[in-house]
Amino acid sequence: MQEFATKAGDQLVWSQPKLMVRYFELTRGQEQFGTLEFRSLWGTLAVARNPIQDWSFKRLGFLNPHVTVRHPEAESDYALYHPKLFGGGGTLQLLDGRPFGWEPVNFWHTRWRFIDKSGAAVLSFDQGTEERHITEFMCMQANVIIESSRITNQEFSMMINLGFYLMVLNQSDAASASSAAHH
Questions:
Q1: How far apart, in Å, are the Cα atoms of 136 and each of 15, 34, 129?
Q2: Is 77 exposed, middle or buried, given 0-12, 13-18 or 19+ CB atoms closer than 10 A?
Q3: How far is 126 from 16, CA to CA, in rounded Å?
Q4: Number of CB atoms found within 10 A of residue 98's CB
Q5: Total Cβ atoms within 10 A of residue 63
Q6: Type and span of the H or E element at 27
Q7: In 76-146, where do the E strands start and end?
């Protein structure tokens, strides 16, 4: 078995280097660990790259919305994420049938986490960072805490990227809804 890329308690940080560009970097300490890049400013197709496994994510469907999780260039899904209709969150369904919950931890939906089927936290995401500079105030950032080492490297790679992808979509959807309400 491959050694786990991180251990419980480790922290990584997602940051957006430039405000109007949907490109994000994942760092562990001072070392870049991965990237997430949306293919367009308004689309939902994004590609994540990191040393463990590259991924692509795309939100599809209107009446039955879901997010496909694939290896880039693959034609079949590796996993599917199905959002709940109300209240935020949803379920990540792996091909082997194992479900992982994605749930907001606070009312404002700035803290999220993946949980296993027993309800134990796997990864936690906290929007914003402790060392935020004024020039980064409008940029999307999140601290990620590894809560459990009971997942594979590939699952870790998928979840750390998918979780932040879902946070970016949530923020974009909220901004769009707010803009529409003011017109």
A1: 9, 19, 10
A2: middle
A3: 15
A4: 13
A5: 4
A6: strand 23-28
A7: 79-83, 90-94, 99-104, 111-115, 121-127, 141-146
Cα 181 from Cα 169, distance rounded (Å): 18
What is the phi/psi pair of residue 136, to 5°? -100, 5
CA distance 36 to 103: 21
Q: What is the pTM of this model?
A: 0.90
For 148-151, the CB contacts below 8 A with 24+ separation are 148/8, 148/116, 148/120, 148/121, 148/122, 148/123, 149/4, 149/6, 149/7, 149/8, 150/116, 150/122, 151/122
Query: CA–CA separation, 87 vs 80, rounded Å?
Result: 19
Instruction: Report whether 149 contacts 8 (CB < 8 A).
Output: yes
pLDDT tens-digit map of 164-183? 999 999 988 665 554 444 44
